């Protein structure tokens, strides 16, 4: 009798296993549902990026911003961000702020040098609604750092940009102050997420002599952070300011220079609008950052308004573009 009971029990278990296989449940390591700790919440972070709109300097800046806001509003984005040189931060620019704020989703500001042409840094921040001039935030699996490269060095002290006080020698402007360098170090130590840094001025070497003189200090913090972890903590840096479309790769970090929405400054005698080589269309981009290890840029392409820098014989014409290129680059993912 005992043997019969054991045989019946084994038969029951065997039939149960067959039923499980028929239902697609598999072995004991498989489930009809995914355990909570195996659920994947990882997804792409999608961003709308526009920079150097120059409201108050470009006559059609509002129209260019409007194109971006309408396109961004038609997409499912995690946030939009403007990379600086947005407007003069005076009452005449309220129309620019109203249009920006018409976007219903999350939105962020980066301070640009020309935002302080007519006001102090504090006044510009108040106009934009910025609580801090440099800050960080998380979105999905990523950490984002917004930096402020708008300091001058005068009489041995780092001073805020304000009222166009930055028209001085390049080595004494476009600086990141020491307190911010220390903050960046601590901020990166506090997060375990892979990080993207966004600034107005560049921390790369694309335009020799014009990147931020603080780039070496910033890159040291980035390299130290990456060397302290068994994964790539800082994966990319994005900037505006230089009105060029370019990409470089330094110590396993991608550096993207994002083109202006409006123009390239070519100087007297070379522009289609005074000293500006205007773009026919509003230029901006949509970024997608995938935790699996991919950064994709969907850029907007345009052309120079005639006469073009090439037609005018500008010495840098072969390097100039009226677009943001589509790009797809990889990075070493955390997982």
UniProtKB/TrEMBL annotation:
Keyword vocabulary terms for this entry: Membrane, Transmembrane, Transmembrane helix
One Gene Ontology molecular-function label: hydrolase activity
Membrane-spanning ranges: 12-33
UniProt-annotated stretches for the region Disordered: 306-335
Residue ranges occupied by any Calcineurin-like phosphoesterase domain in the UniProt entry: 46-244
Name of the molecule in the record: Metallophosphoesterase
Organism name: Arenibacter aquaticus
Organism lineage string: Bacteria, Pseudomonadati, Bacteroidota, Flavobacteriia, Flavobacteriales
């Amino acid at each position: 009798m005992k043997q019969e009971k054991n045989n019946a029990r084994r038969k029951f278990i065997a039939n149960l296993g067959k039923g499980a296989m028929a239902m697609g449940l598999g072995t004991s390591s498989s489930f009809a549902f995914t355990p909570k700790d195996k659920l994947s919440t990882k997804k792409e972070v999608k961003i709308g990026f526009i920079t150097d709109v120059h409201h108050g300097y470009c006559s059609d800046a509002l129209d260019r911003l409007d194109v971006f806001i309408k396109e961004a509003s038609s997409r499912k984005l995690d946030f939009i961000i403007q990379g600086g040189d947005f407007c003069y931060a005076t009452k005449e620019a309220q129309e620019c702020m109203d249009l920006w704020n018409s976007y219903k989703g999350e939105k962020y500001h980066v301070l640009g040098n020309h935002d302080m042409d007519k006001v102090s840094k504090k006044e510009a921040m108040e106009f934009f609604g910025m609580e801090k001039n440099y800050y960080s935030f998380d979105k999905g699996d990523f950490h984002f750092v917004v930096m402020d490269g708008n300091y001058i060095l005068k009489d041995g002290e780092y001073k805020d940009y304000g009222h166009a006080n930055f028209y001085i020698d390049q080595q004494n402007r476009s600086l990141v102050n020491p307190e911010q360098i220390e903050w960046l170090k601590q901020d990166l130590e506090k997060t375990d997420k892979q990080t993207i840094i966004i600034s107005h001025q560049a921390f790369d070497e694309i335009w020799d002599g014009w990147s931020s003189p603080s780039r070496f200090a910033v890159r040291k913090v980035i390299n130290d952070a990456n060397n302290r972890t068994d994964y790539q903590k800082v994966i990319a840096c994005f900037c505006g300011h230089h009105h060029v479309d370019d990409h470089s790769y330094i110590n396993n970090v991608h550096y993207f220079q994002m083109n202006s929405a409006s123009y390239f400054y070519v100087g007297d005698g070379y522009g289609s609008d005074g000293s500006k080589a205007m773009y026919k269309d509003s230029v901006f981009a949509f970024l997608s950052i995938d935790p699996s290890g991919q950064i994709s840029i969907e850029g907007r392409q345009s052309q120079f308004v005639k006469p073009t820098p090439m037609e005018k014989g500008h010495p840098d014409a072969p390097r100039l573009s009226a677009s943001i290129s589509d790009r797809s680059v990889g990075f070493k993912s955390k997982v």
